[in-house]
Amino acid sequence: MAEAHQAVAFQFTVSPDGIDLQLCHEALRQIYLSGLHSWKKRFIRFKNGVMTGVYPGSPGGFMVVVVSYMSYNKYQQLDPSLGLISKLGQHMPISRYMSTDSQKIVGGVLVGTGLWVSIIMIMRSVLKSLLSWHGWMYTSHGSVAWSTRLWMVFSGRKPMLYSFQNSLPRLPVPSIKDTCKRYLESVRPLMEDERYQRMEGLTKDFEKNLGPRLQWYLKLKSWWASNYVSDWWEEYIYLRGRGPIMVNSNYYAMDFLYVFPTSIQAARAGNAIHAIMLYRRKLDRAQIKPVPLCSAQWEPMFNTTRVPGLETDILQHVNDSKHIAVYHKGRFFKVWMFYDGRLLLPREIEQQMARILADTTEPMPGEEKLAALTAGDRTPWANARETYFSRGKNKQSLDAIEKAAFCVTLDDTEQRFESDNPDQSLVSYAKSLLHGKCYDRWFDKSFNLIIFKNGTMGLNAEHSWADAPIVGHLWEHVLSMDPIKLGYTEAGHCKGEPHPNLPGPQKLSWDIPAECQEVIQSSLKVARTLADDVDSHIMPFSDFGKGLIKKCRTSPDAFIQIALQLAHYRVNTPFCLTYEASMTRLFREGRTETVRSCTSESCAFVRAMIKGETRDECLRLLKLASEKHQSMYRLAMTGEGIDRHLFCLYVVSKYLGEDSPFLKEVLSEPWRLSTSQTPLQQVELFDLVRHPEYVSAGGGFGPVADDGYGVSYIILGENLINFHISSKHSSPETDSHRFGGHIRQAIKESILSEVCTESNIGFRVN
């Protein structure tokens, strides 16, 4: 095989005439180019580290300050060191061997450097103060706050991805009193009087006695650590979980809803993989357009795997990886992404994928369903990994997967949106991305790119390393590049020509004993039970969108959350604890906070709708509920949420061995309605006015509670909202399709149309 030949750098034979050494010049050339590529990356990382370290200053600014300072002093005939060199000369013998001019130059550089560092520190302090001020959230729409203008001055001309990291404030620890007050406020509409009074007593006892002691430890941690929440959140919410991460933790992202760029599987993979690798290059060079938010979650996007442990998993990240791992029909392949010292072009990647698709070799015993280990319980997988994959070729092959940039599945099924069968086609598509066959995605990998047989694609992402907006940012880049910037030929292939000498993919080799195959089958059984229980429903809502909602002077997110409350009440009658994810990336190493969307105000609106109150009364209550939701969202974003604070207090109580009935009950309350908005972050990449067909279907996740719903939604353009609803078939209380119907009804409710009519919009519900 070609790859076997290229892998041999030199050969030698021993004969009576001596040693005959035969060098393979092509192999040596590839080694040289590979090393050159590696050193270029090291230099770029070093340069980026310097640029980020001195931000908002720059090395160019250093030269300007030093040269200007020395020029001024030379013109004024002043000692640039202000006598510093003379004083140092008493203690530094080297100054005796320096001329007067040399001393002036050295003194000018030293003093200029000090001046430059002082300017940077002042600018950084001002920038940090600006980033700590969140009053801009309360400014009227369209106006530019004074802090925003100052930020434009102090943020520098060309910030890099990580430039703002050192200037971001730390997440503040809310007071015990405020957290307890907001907690009681959030549960009041969910509890009967007797239960609420009991909970009120537990809360006051905690606030007075144990709470202040636990708070002291959190304050201490907030002074010492970059973020008092994130490391515990990652460890205890994600990595210490012993159940399957498939469905329970991993989430998915879909392709375009209405556009199918090519039906050739290998070609779609070629463009998508190339676009992802270009994104990685931008990430390595810190060239992703920054915003004044924490960018730490970008770091482990590539070359990262969640490694199972007996008690807790770990995130394994390598600095660089030059290959990807590909799964097809039960076989794993290692595919190099670089040749001749450069990244493979889309047509060359298509060539590699086509070779894999044409490979007819059978999987080795146990190989076909090996990935089921990543879909089942974590402890059996940890034991199996240590017992059967810690040495020999099994370890080498496992390393090829775990140290790959990311994983790709060339799926042998066809998935896409079908206009004549929209419901079933989207359900099949969503479930395939969420869990597939339970053994054809490496669920431990940071993300899996899935290319279906008909050219449709999607992502499955592991959750512990980052939250959905980070993966969404990558996915927007891929979707924007694939059909337009990279494009396809008329025949549906990637543009360009195949490479005549490109070594082929390397098929991974395994030696999986029967005992391990039994563990694989056991994990597969657990995973299939979980996957079969998922009740999924994808609902594109195109009657109207954010354009109409904004004209009603209502936040689109608040509008949808209130509609979800109305829909859920009609399905399940009692109000329930509702989770809406909000980011806290305004702070260093921030991740998420919970917006408790079920409020007294939203409940009052729902009751008024159910009772058939007058239009004016319902309109008044809707406005109050929307304003309350926006206020809670702002509090969550600015570090004044309650759930992460309560979670950390609970962790401290466990470390101290203290039993808190209040915290125990708070953290055991089920989230029967878990919701999340998928934001469209790079709107400049998609011209949805001219090309409304280029809309993504968004993404979704599995149900959080056994008797609850998971709802993800994405607001696209002015006239489309896509909902992804999940629940469990095993629960008699839930039905995703029924809930979706009630969501549609709630959004189109007559009171909402009357709100629009009042705003002189003229929308009418059919």
UniProtKB/TrEMBL annotation:
- The superkingdom listed in its UniProt entry is Eukaryota
Recorded GO MF terms: carnitine O-palmitoyltransferase activity
Entry EC number(s):
2.3.1.21
Name used for this protein in its record: carnitine O-palmitoyltransferase
Name the source organism.
Answer: Gasterosteus aculeatus aculeatus
One GO cellular component from the entry?
Answer: mitochondrial outer membrane
Report which reactions are catalysed by this protein. Answer: (R)-carnitine + hexadecanoyl-CoA = O-hexadecanoyl-(R)-carnitine + CoA
In which broad location class does this protein mainly occur, judging by the first location in its UniProt entry?
Answer: mitochondrion
Where do the coiled-coil regions begin and end? Answer: none
Family (UniProt): Belongs to the carnitine/choline acetyltransferase family.
User: Is this entry keyworded Cytoplasm?
Assistant: no
The record places domain Choline/carnitine acyltransferase at 171-744
